[in-house]
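Students often ask why we bother encoding 3D structure as a string. The short answer is that it lets us treat folding as translation between two languages. Here is a chain of 1114 residues written in the first language.
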Amino acid sequence: EGQGPAPAGGPPPALTLEQALALQRDLLAGFGEDSFQRRLQELRETLQGTNFRKFNVERQKLFLTVQKEVLPRHGFEGTQKGVFQMLEAFAPFNDSEEFQQLGFALNQLLGLSDAPGEPPADEAAGARAGAPAPAEPAREVEVTVKHAVNEEEEVNVTVPAASTMQQVREALAQKLGRPDVQKRGRLVRKVGDSQSFTSFADSEQLGSRRTLRIIGVDDLRPSPDAAALPEPAAAAGAADAAAPAQGPPTLDLEQALGLQRDLIQGFSDEDFQRRLRELGDVHARGSRQWNVERQKLFLSVQGDVLPRYGFPGNQKGVYQMMQAFRPEFSVSDEFNANGSMLSRLLGLDGDGGQAAAAETPAAEPPAPETVEVAVRHAITEEEVRVSVPSTATVREVRDALAEALGRAEVAKEARVVRRAGGALTSLRDSDALGARRSLLVVGVENLKAREAPRAPPARAAAPQLTREQALSLQRDLYEGFAEQDFQRRLRELEQAHPRGSREFGAERQKLFLTVQRVVLPKYGFEGNQKGVYAMLGVLGAFTDEEFQRNGFALNELLGLNEAAPAEAAEGAPAGGGAAEAEPAGAAGEADGEAEAEAEGEVEVAVRHALGEGPALRVSVPVGATLGAVKEAAAALLGRPEVAKRGRLVRRVGEQGAFSSLREAERLGSRRSALLMGVDDLLPAPGNKPSLGRAQALGLQRALREGFAAEEFQGRLRELERRKGTPEFARERMKLVLSVQSAVLPQYGYEGNPSGVVAMSRMLDGWTSADPEFGQLGAEIGVLLGLAEQAAAQPAAGARLFEAGAQAEVVVPEGPTAGAWIKCVVTGAGEQPNTYSIHVPADPPEIMTAADYPNIPGQMLRPREEPPKAEAVAARPSAAAGAGAPPELVAVTVRHAVNEGEEFQVSVPGASTMRQVKEALAEALQRPEVLKKARLVRKVGDSGSYASFADSERLGSRRLVRVMGLEDLRPAAGAAGPKVEAAGAPGPAGGGAAVEQAPPSLTLEQAMSMQRDLLAGFSEEPFQTQLRALHTAHAPGSRQFNMERQKLFLTVQAVVLPAYGFPGNQKGVFQMMQAMSAFNGQPEFDALGLMLSQALGLVQPPAAEAAEAAEAAEA
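And here it is in the second language, the structure alphabet:
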């Protein structure tokens, strides 16, 4: 079934093999028509023998009479551009035998394939498409390979006469020293006189062809290391023999000046100048023949001069010389003057030789005036004139060019250059224009102006529906979707493609449209995808019960209600289904929403599409767009990158696929949203959001609900039995924090003591101005058993600390955030449950003594001074013979990222965290554990961790987590009680669960995953963010590496779950382990290289070794 016409200006479709074969068969049917064959025969009889050029043109027009009918059925334009796109889309199938057979049949039908024993047909028309050439004697021939786009670039290679196209490409790659030519290059032939090409099959014979074209590579320049590679003997000229076998030489400034002087002398020769003038008389300037002959003439001098400086005396040597002319040479006036002289001698400088003079300012700068500058493309010779001030810089000229062409990319990508000794060297952006009135540019394909956008046809606004019309539309859609034929095709679709796959989603959308395009026009909407979106926008205004019930029925009919509640909105594309179901949240959420709506705002729960954890509660105006929801989330978290990189999405199917929502779309009745594009929805460190009244009340109600939960109250009652013991206050603070750490991140605060302090200060402002906050605070105090402290003047006996008490306070922010330091309580604070403290200078080289007022009691804990007996037990060597040995306890150390890895160590019960770490290092026989490892504890369910201080006691803990190590594997020869993952708690900490081993992959699965990753990494939005990252941070810096890893994960998190891996850093690690088995497989390694290129991880050869680990990581 055809794909339908491609939208004007849209990307050409990608074809499957079956679609490509179907297209070939349609062309075969059209070209086989009697009327077509009759007209083709008439062309042969009238023009082929008399005017071959005109014959080619007319034949191409005749071909297009069939192509313009066939191509649109398969998604291509019915134009020459569409033919070119079709040929590009055919390229992946050249190895298919059936595809080659059909191609051969097409060529025979069109008279483009030679009969056995006849001379070959013209190459430009596509001779021998898939037909083997007759065998030739075993001899070598020279083949010229030209770049299909820039025909000035060509390379001669020597190959056996019976070579295949693949062997020609291999010879070219070897000669240039560039493996990418073999992998990416495609040998092609011209189709007619247009710029269309069709690929040769790798297995096709060279035959009598001695000129070939290549596409798929930027140029045919040799690799810098190519001089060290052996070249075929027949291709090496005499000048090559003079070049050294090692890599191309480097030049210092004096050597570069000497080379320029020798070239000036050669190009100044009267005979050379005479031949150069004659060349302009014989060939049209700018023509292909003129360029070729001029290059040969230049080489007559370069071939003599270059070998004196260690370069080959050929085109390869010219490229090496250009590379050896380093940019820093441009600071030399003599180097620049020599370059200008060479350009004038060769007729390459259009400014009349004034470039050098431009570097010398006049004694008294003239008043700025507007001047006209001719900007010419260095390759295509296209020219554009721009007007700029006489004082303009090179950068300003480039900006003016971009503006004149209406192409913003010109300002970013174009480089202004000048010719120097036959080479092109860049001008700096800060260089003054001076007396130059013509400039050369490279870096962009052409200098064509962007076509002014045609005024779109006037279109009526989306129709407005009454409630009755909206309900009628839903009923009509329901009738169409309930048809037996539709339901049968839907079932077949589910059998043909896995639910949630890309193919399933695309085909299902097409199937939906078969009904929608009939129904929607009855109500004034277009019968296409655009009309579907317009319908959704109109139906979003209806939220009553009957409308929602109809939407649910539609979703049920289409199988969309089988997904999780958050996916219910997926029914909307089919015809205004139910809004996303809102999961139960914190207590008082309904109250909070009513409060917000009364103030003209609504609360939206934003969840991360891939991660777990609580939703972020953002407040936006009624009628806000989805883009405003995203911006509100970014502001609440204090993370601007959420607004830049985040995307609001909806689930598609059951396999973890997502579809982006438009930012301009209205929120409508949605009260929840999914977001992806960032790693998590955790607040920025130290974030202190400003909450409105409705949000602040919602936060307090959520805390009240958490504290009122039966589980929390049960644990609190159990803890009350230990009241009066030293650990009571600390354990109660941990219990309270277990609720706060889950609630606070939903409102933009960190789920740690620092976040508690920021929240308390925010609520203080509301409490003093609004009695409702005070009432909620009192209710929370009762729930926590702190009712007496909620009074304005709490009783002294209700306080946790008395004046003079020895305590510890947690550092809320800064580089040591989370650490506990000593303090002394000096008295009660001004607010309920707060204290004034004194922090001593201990140790004096780190701490400065200071007093702090109004510190919340939750940030304090009693200082534990271990009994002497415990201190002795902690150091058994000092207590040898001093009584019973210390009691040993088993402690499980679990990897914080890969929770399947655990190790058990035995330590004295009174050990510090430092001693636990020492025991782990000894058991694993890995000294780096002491330097790199950090023992940590989880903070809530958000995936955040807080470090233990080395001096902190183990206490009653029998499980700690470790970070800073890749794994917990013992060193070779070490033995220890490594614990298997079977008893490890699941990711949510919800009891024992057997952790599944990471999946193993076949080679086909591994390569399929590589292709999916390559598709994601090649997307323009990803590449744009990657380029921006290089601009924002110094490559190689810690910040750069962190941000880049996050960016990689935006693609990996989507692809990995489709192959059974978690969509996080742990899954990336598992994927790397699973893929390591296929290193050395040629196709696998080639895909790996393409991935590295897409991610910018492929470095110049000198840096490859240093970057190998980085490439492996990505």
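Translate back mentally: Residues 823 and 839 are 4 Å apart (CA to CA). Keep this in mind for the problem set.
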